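Q: Structure for this?
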Amino acid sequence: MAVRYANRMNSLKASEIREILKVTEKPEVISFAGGLPAPELFPVEEMREVASLVLAESGRQALQYATTEGFGPLRQKLADRMNRKLQTNVTADDILITSGSQQGLDFTGKVFLDEGDIVLCESPSYLGAINAFKAYGPKFVEVPTDDEGLISSELKEILEKVQPKCIYVIPDFQNPTGRSWTLKRRQEFMEIINHYEIPVIEDNPYGELNFEGEILPSLKSMDTKGLVIFLGTFSKIFCPGYRIGWVAASQEILEKYIMIKQSADLHTSSISQREIDKYLELYDIDENIAKIKEVYRKRRDLMLAEMEKEFPDNVKFTYPKGGLFTWVELPAHVDAREVLLKCVENNVAFVPGGSFYPNGGNENTFRLNYSNMQEDKIVEGIQRLGKILREVLQPLPQ
Amino acid sequence: MAVRYANRMNSLKASEIREILKVTEKPEVISFAGGLPAPELFPVEEMREVASLVLAESGRQALQYATTEGFGPLRQKLADRMNRKLQTNVTADDILITSGSQQGLDFTGKVFLDEGDIVLCESPSYLGAINAFKAYGPKFVEVPTDDEGLISSELKEILEKVQPKCIYVIPDFQNPTGRSWTLKRRQEFMEIINHYEIPVIEDNPYGELNFEGEILPSLKSMDTKGLVIFLGTFSKIFCPGYRIGWVAASQEILEKYIMIKQSADLHTSSISQREIDKYLELYDIDENIAKIKEVYRKRRDLMLAEMEKEFPDNVKFTYPKGGLFTWVELPAHVDAREVLLKCVENNVAFVPGGSFYPNGGNENTFRLNYSNMQEDKIVEGIQRLGKILREVLQPLPQ
């Protein structure tokens, strides 16, 4: 058979890391690899009640086709909540419900990117976004980052040389680094963006999971020109199983996303939307978020304390103030993929950092997740990992 | 602001018809426009029980991230059911769960089509498929059809001239025409396809809704070379609200779809998948399908009898043996869009046929749906429509 695929299929390869990480599904493996929330915090009983209510009150509508834009009352609640929590000024009409915020990323590629177009992103950036954009054949230009976020002077320099279609950023508790942008960096960023009029995709899955300090203003709240496309999701503040995310953008841009949504999957599950809407009506999601933050904060504290103790001195890592991840940098000559192979033999796992750089390199980095492992497993896992790192980095004299 | 979109956004225009049809949401309008199933047949009470059980038995897993391929037990049940009902020979590994079969259509475009590639489809064809493919910039070549299905000699002639990347067909109770392919046409089609080795997308949302006679063998059941990509869905045999569809294809092809799914939305709602799986375990979906067929058959009979009585003689229409639609052909000079405007004034609606032809033309056609209206409304609606058609086609002498 000589089936001919689209050219894009050549650039999308099944990830070797995914193959390695398949072993992490074994129960004896302590995995810091996934970006999974803690399932013991999911509001299972509440959702049983909610599911029953939604079907009793509006079963026929909930099981029928629905509008592409999403369930009206849920869009209204999301707009109100964003305005309250993130200091934005959006209406229900500015919101499109998506099947997880991953779908918002895919649509972004589809709306903006032709083959050869330039897309900017932080260096490193979320690998799911990189893969979503890759399907549309763009060139990636990586903007350097530091502990304060995306480096404004570097962005300026890049924008003097190239004309990107859009820029993708995660200002709060970034995936993979766990870092947040300072207020100053946010302000500088919006000034530059407004000057060059570049659409910004602000991906904000973790922003409400701040363990200390205030939530900083979202880029969307500073958006005076309708340039910021905000991606939100329930996956980390509630649970991922319903696959409910949203896009908030200016009317002109949102219309394009709605058109794409129509041909991509007609609409997101009407029953899932109504169930989440009912949950928001009956329960206080902020109480749920407070519980999540409490648990994750403890896990972060424990993981970082253990890393301090167990990791060799020439291993650097970030101190996230929220979110799900810390980011580790090994000495430049060490390949984290090789470390992972040793780790998997010892039933502990992480994600090597190379895949978070769309243009490659930086193989001496990796990402650790602390949200999905119980405390005793975190201690045990970091001890195993520390032992391996010490062996790799400080070999015993022969 | 000078935001620059991808070129594909130029070819995707918000449909004027969609705008006109927005008025059909008013309760006084009798709409034969949508392709909606009858909500009074949805198993609402059963799903209340199922939802509660799934959350009680496996709440944490149901609300967590899940694998891209889909929920294992559901994939197994789908493979078994396809083999039993459609005479195929597939395994759970050949199945990918999608967010409705619309997503399978979008992925088909993404997997196969580069700009300028040729895709073949029936003339006319499902407008949702046409729009999904359009986003990838192909050229459409329409293969003529008649009451027996896609015309084999026409397909042969086309394949001597062009090299399509794939061919999209709906052999059972087609949307929009309601026609089914004869067994002979299916056999001839597969011979031609096997000779030229063209991937076939067999879209089969209505195949099980046969009102009389046996279900004919699916193309997938005749597929000896792994060329047929089968798209299935629960939308018409159960309910659309969960957005659960599936792709069944050979391993080589399915791998491509899985890669695309990963970056498009990670996976389909895990809780929706588990709920449908549980329903299939506890209930006999075939009993539900039998009920649906009984109701739709009556509605079809009534609509067609009314059309015979009310429509002028120079209006032709199909006699579907199953599915949701009948297809109407007006004299060549009459524009169905103009008829629709008059209809909307009189609170009755349909979808003009032009949009079902990717290369345009055939504005003298329209599609009628009979599944979504109660019997008294069908009579009343066809009477209104008949009156307008008589006015348009047989104007009174001045």
